[in-house]
Amino acid sequence: MNTFAAQFREQSLRLTRDLRHRLLIQNALGKYETQRDHRKAAFQDWQSARQAAAEIKWEAINHLDVHLQDFVSRIEARGTVVHWASTAAQARDIIIGIVRDSKARSIIKSKAMTSEEIHLNEALEEAGFEVVESDLGEFIVQLRKEAPYHIVFPAMHLTRGDISELFTRELGSAPTQNPEDLTMIARRVLRQKYINADVGLTGANFPIAETGMISITENEGNARLTAALPKVMISLLGIEKVLPRLEDLALFLPLLATAGTGQPLTCYNSLYGGPRRADESDGPEEFHVVLLDNHRTELLADAEQRDALHCIRCGACLNVCPIFRNVGGHTYGTTYSGPIGSVITPHLRGLQDWKHLSYSSSLCGASTETCPVKINLHHHLLQNRRNASRQKPSRIEKFAFRTYAAIVNRPGLYHLVKKAGRVLQKLHPLVRGTRADPAYGWTKTRDLPPIARQTFKEYWKDRNIK
Amino acid sequence: MVQILERLGHTVECPQDLACCGQPAFNSGYWDESRAIAVNVLSRLKDAEAVVVASGSCGAMLKVFYPELFAKTPHLDAAKSLSARTWEFSDFLVTRLGVSDVGARFPARVTFHDGCHGLRELGIKQPPRVLLSKVRDIQLVEMKEAETCCGFGGAFAAKFPMISTAMGEVKCASAAETGAEYIVSNDSSCLMHLQGLLSRQGKPVKTIHLAEILVRQ
User: Fold this and answer.
1) Contact criterion met (CB < 8 Å) for A398 and B14
2) Residue A369 backbone zone (phi > 0: left; psi -120 to 50: alpha; other: beta)
3) Which of A56, A170, A341, B46 makes a 20 to 30 Å CA pair with A7?
């Protein structure tokens, strides 16, 4: 077992035993579900909306080259500098280069999972810059020196008490359990950071090919401040996010808000098209867009799983996933957790190192059912399993399944094995539930039913003799 | 299941040399080994008018996953043909035969667990409930987490027992809230997992397959 798989197993064991944590997450996500269902009902036909969104993404991804070129040429025409980054390292170097060139010291950021993906904060800090997350949840996990717990709710694993304690410790504020007071504490700190920042860094929800603009959707207004106050603005975006037309937002903005947070629309929706023009009173003097590939084009070449690039990062699949709801977000050890993370991480970081996530699924299909852009998530997990065992089969498993196939294909042998099982199960109590038990994975927490005294086949045979 | 179908006047056959649909190997990523089993299933069932399966999961394997397993192979047509003829038991009774009352009687309070494969791969939600609603003296109480996975998931249950067990606990707790004496399902593997958990934890709730209720008179 590789280190990542061992860590996942260890964390899973720890967190499934942490009943307080399980309850906290399940309660929070239960409330989300109620809210989301309420908003889904506001759509005339939610299933048709999903279908329409899937078709738009299908077109967007299948003609990604054209849409990207359109997006780039149009946003460049308004004075934006576009950078293409094939790898995470290139993207980091490009961004550090821009920051250095602008002689900046402090960078303010709004929420961007792509920046987590390329480990940007660490790189910027190592290069000697101050980086401040301005999304409240991200600000909290940054103070805790943690990765976001969830792609949409980064601090959902913390209670008000946890946050109060953190603020008292790190910011010297007076303890309070009141959410408004806690928000005000963060706000006071952040306002000063906006003013001091030389560079603002954002992600993007939807780059629009038709107009060469970037749509950013948020609830706190922090992305607006990040984009408006500093002299230099950088947007780091995955190439797969592009949508063909401006009017597509009419579907995608409510779809994302409904699936993501159970809102009709998020509180702030902005479009950014370039640096400040001569006749404009605010906005950045310089605007850079960094387009990130980082293995996305390899996924694009995979006809079977290409639709994983449809993802709009709403987090809905995490919210309904019973695995996520029991082990939580940090256990995955990935940027993208939950079902979509289990599907794409092997593509982003290597199949053999991350295949365990594809096996750690009951294939229940709740994620596929909920995905607003209809990614066939659990079938992709099956394909990852197939690809992993094709590429590097486990000798024991291969042998086991060959033997299994040989037995079930030979009725005489199958009958014999069943008989042997009846004899051997009498010895089972000697080892049941101990490490010596061949069925330990099962019997540690569960009883195993005895083999039926009369199996269906025996019943059938007897019946036909009579 | 056989008894119920025969009571309704159908001829039931059961090929003696079939033991498994190959799903364990398929789900674990060993598709060649799975196909070695599945080709036999295809050939043995090729003449059946309807193939009725008592487990949503095995049903989904035949109906949904075989065409995927045999894609780009010479057996694809046979797989598609079998897929079209395969029915999950409750769906067969209600949708194909139009039967909702099989004359059963079962005096107990029960709650229904939707097996994931039956529910989401095959889209079967109402048929088992229609059948249960016609059972005399039964009291069906829906649980909040009826559609949530029980945590079985085949090899997953043994590979990640801690997660599988936690999921099972969520399910059992939700079932217990209804005060039901039985958890009913149309999927035997979920029931094996849940019964294993319940009996280990000394809980009084029992599990029972839908067909076992429908056969009681």
Assistant:
1) no
2) alpha
3) A170
Q: Is residue A409 part of a domain?
A: no
- When the pLDDT of each residue in chain A is averaged and rounded to a whole number, the result is 95
Which one of A17, A365, A385 has the shortest CB-CB distance to B116?
A365
Cβ–Cβ of A393/B30 closer than 8 Å?
yes
Tell me the C-alpha distance between A156 and A164, whole Å. Answer: 14
Question: Is there a single domain that holds both residue A231 and residue A110?
Answer: yes
Residues A359-402 have pLDDT tens digits of 999 999 999 999 999 999 999 999 999 999 999 999 999 999 99
State the pLDDT at residue A108.
Answer: 98
The pLDDT tens digits of the residues spanning A56-79 come to 999 999 999 999 999 999 999 999
Domain with A24 in it: 1-42+317-392
Instruction: Give yes or no for a contact between B101 and B159, defined as CB atoms under 8 angstroms apart.
Output: no
CB–CB contact B37 A408 (8 Å): yes
Residue A415 banded pLDDT, cuts 50, 70, 90: confident
| SS3 of residue B127 by DSSP | helix
The closest CB to that of A16, out of B68, B154, B163, belongs to B163
pLDDT tens-digit readout, A156-173: 999 999 999 999 999 999
Residues B215 and B142: beta-carbon distance below 8 Å? no
Q: Tell me: do A70 and A209 sit in the same domain.
A: yes
Smallest Cβ–Cβ distance between B192 and the set A359, A388, A449 belongs to A449
Beta carbons of A366 and B116 less than 8 Å apart:
yes
The ipTM of this complex is: 0.95
Mutate to test the interface with A, among B162, B194, B207, B212 (most CBs of A within 10 A): B162
Question: Tell me, what's the pLDDT at A392?
Answer: 94
Please give the C-alpha separations between residue A45 and each of A10, A279, A305, in angstroms, as whole numbers: 43, 44, 27
Contact B89, B53 (CB under 8 A): yes
In chain B, how many H helices and how many E strands? 13, 6
Statement: residue A456 has pLDDT above 90: no
pTM: 0.95
Residues with Cβ within 8 Å of A361's Cβ and at least 6 positions away in sequence, in order, are A323, A339, A342, A378, A381, B153, B156
CATH of range B102-214; options 3.40.50.460, 3.40.50.11810, 3.40.50.150, 3.40.30.10:
3.40.50.11810
Are residues A449 and B164, on separate chains, in Cβ contact within 8 Å?
Answer: no
For residue A433, pLDDT beyond 80: no
Please answer whether residues B154 and B55 qualify as being in contact, where contact means their C-beta atoms are separated by less than 8 angstroms: no
Residues in chain B: 217
